[in-house]
Specification:
By secondary structure, the chain is of the alpha+beta class. The chain is 17% helix and 30% strand. The strands form seven sheets. Strands 6, 9, 12, 15, 16, 18 and 19 form a seven-stranded mixed beta sheet that branches. α2 packs across α6. The radius of gyration is 21 Å and the shape is globular. It starts with 11 loop residues before the first helix and ends with a strand. The N terminus is likely disordered.
Length: 344
């Protein structure tokens, strides 16, 4: 009898978590998805694996900076009609002398990359890119942290992780062509026209067809639900009913590698978490800047364990209304066993 060959040993990614992380080899820019906007870039790694990077930052000249880095791969559904916000267009908000509580002017095309998503799409996207990985990461991100870092200052659980877009920047060293990986905040916008579409029809007891709730009506019920005292809901329900400025969606990675979205109504006055849409975006942009000052040694995550997420069937996504971006040094967050398991 022939001896049965030994089974190959599973990689640590499968043994220790659902999060898919791969080492990048031979990265190349591929053709874009047919009929989809150019901010969805095709990235081919290892010769045959296709993932997608969001933004306009990668090109044939700078993509070599990704070689031998670790990439997290996440599963994202992007709804039909979504536009992607230029992170650079949000940066002036940080330096504004006075931050008012007005909705952002979404009629200004300079806020967005060209084009809209033409239909709901489900793609594998390039997430965090790092120079090292940890072999002892567990599925639920809170299990990787010390007991003193399970909650944000607001008391929210620190469960989701940030979905960021890679950027390549010259590091500024003298006589050096080396570059480093930075990360950019990803923000989508859904216009009012998408909020007022009916989610199909149903036949009532009268035998007649009726329109289902619109996305806007569902979101209005979700954002004005006050059954959970810990939630910081918007107070201006009249504005919420109309939501002429649409909503912003910021993708968050859940423990099973799928995307949920932090949903911010683009309304005047208080939006979610009892602050304005401008202040919310400023806080997130500042956190990204803090993270990029030392991305190899900093940890970034999201505090925002809603009492409930809202599923939007027409968009095929879950949205939440409580989220806060957190940045800390890794040694203050990860357990010693996780830190000791680093590979590069």
């Amino acid at each position: 009898m022939s001896q049965r060959s030994a089974k190959p040993k599973k990689s640590f990614y499968r043994r220790h978590g659902l999060q898919r992380t791969v080492r990048i080899t031979n990265p190349k820019i591929g053709p874009r998805i047919n009929e989809q906007p150019e901010f969805i870039q095709t990235l081919i790694i290892g010769g045959n694996r296709t993932v997608y990077a969001l933004g306009d930052y990668l090109n044939d000249g700078n993509i070599s900076a990704l070689e031998n880095k670790f990439m997290r791969i996440d599963t994202m559904v992007i709804p039909e009609g979504a536009r992607m916000v230029r992170a650079s267009a949000l940066e002036p908000l940080i330096f504004a002398d006075n931050i008012n509580e007005e909705a952002l002017a979404v009629e200004d095309d300079s806020l967005f990359y060209p084009g809209r998503v033409t239909q709901n799409i489900r793609i594998e996207v390039c997430g965090m890119i790092e120079s090292q990985q940890y072999t002892e990461l567990r599925i639920h991100s809170c299990d990787n942290r010390g007991n003193n870092f399970h909650h944000s200052e607001d008391g929210y659980r620190t469960c989701p992780e940030a979905q960021l877009s890679p950027d390549v920047e010259e590091n500024g060293e003298t006589n050096s062509t080396a570059s480093r990986i930075l990360h950019k905040l990803i923000v989508f916008h859904m216009p009012h026209s998408e909020l007022i579409k009916s989610q199909g029809t149903y036949k009532g007891s009268d035998g007649k067809s009726h329109d289902n709730f619109t996305i806007g009506e569902i979101l209005h019920q979700y954002f004005t639900d006050d059954h959970y005292s810990g939630e910081k809901n918007p107070t201006n329900s009249t504005e919420l009913t109309h939501m002429k400025g649409g909503v912003f969606l910021i993708p968050m990675i859940m423990p099973d590698s799928r995307i949920a979205y932090y949903c911010i109504p683009n309304i005047n006055g208080k939006s979610v978490r009892q602050t304005s849409v401008r202040n919310l975006l400023i806080d997130w942009m500042k956190s990204i800047i803090d993270f990029n000052q030392n991305p190899e040694d900093n940890w970034i995550g999201i505090a925002g364990n809603d009492a409930t997420f809202c599923f939007l069937d027409e968009w095929s996504i879950f949205v939440g209304k409580n989220a806060q971006l957190l940045v800390k040094p890794k040694e203050e967050v990860y357990k010693e066993s996780v830190l000791a398991s680093a590979i590069s």
